Amino acid sequence: MGACREPVVTARPAHSCALPPTVDVVDQARLAERLGYRRVWLFDSPALHGDVWVALARVAAGTERIGLATGVAVPSLRHPMVTASAIGSIHELAPGRLIVAFGTGYTARYAVGRKPIAWADLARQYRQVRALLDGEVVEVDGRPCQMMHLPGHGPARPIDVPLWVAASGPKGFATARALAAPGVVMTAIPADGDRGWAQCALLRFGTVLRPGEDHTTTRVIEAAGPGYASIVHAVWQNAGDAVDAMPGGKEWRAAVETARPEGQRHLVAHQGHLSRLTERDRSIVAAAGPAILEPGWTGDAGVIAARFDEAGTAGVTEVVYTPAGPDIAGELTAFAAAADS
């Protein structure tokens, strides 16, 4: 008889949430804390939402124990000292609760007319911020910098806040490994060669379907639609008129081109990213029909629970849910129940 193998036991990922820095973010974070979410991650898209560091300070002061995170911070938008000082300020308000994930910038940079930065540039900025937090003298733009805060004017160095990397593609994962990042953020379940991280957060959008709901249900359209629309935005940004091949894409592109002249269309194309539908986006979501249910995690509670198990098997330690639509409280409540089922 063959040897009996022990079953592979995989830890189920924790559930966290990602929110835009809006006026309601503190109330939403408090609800997430009550519902057992591990962390609240906040977007860093200054052209689309409020300031990520101001919002983190508000959440830190308005909650008791929930973890805080940037989902994800774009260091190229600020001088490294500005970023390091902001991190220090949040750490003072909520010691031990903050992690900071850095990314090359996609929507945040495209929304101000810039492409994402190169991975080499991200690595340099990551190292600069890390060294500043550790109290070192760092060369930035050819000049030495150091956190010089006297006692009472900032936290003592070193400031022990973990810095993660939002990694994608071979260069992204290679950069995260070269930086010895303690955690990574992904937008898809990692393939075999991209696993093995001590901490791995998976960003997911979508909605938990209630009995009788489908792609024609108004609530589902408002909650799942922004995730689908974000894919439309990406196709347009990266491939222009390739968006015409998507249902309703030609009309959507025409609406963007009508709204702004060439050179300014990035100022409208990304509005509502992963949070709310514009009228342009609502039209393309309607044209997509049941396809809006395919990206992200949309399904009943059993489907969501099965996705958690799949993610855990792939080494994901934390699923970061991005609720959308007008009823964020309802979305957070339903997802937490599914995650715990």
Automatic annotation (TrEMBL):
Signal peptide: none annotated. InterPro entries: F420-G6PD/mer, Luciferase-like_dom, Luciferase-like_sf. It comes from the Bacteria. It holds the Pfam family Bac_luciferase. Residues 23-184 form the Luciferase-like domain. Transmembrane segments: none annotated. This is LLM class flavin-dependent oxidoreductase. It comes from Actinoallomurus vinaceus.
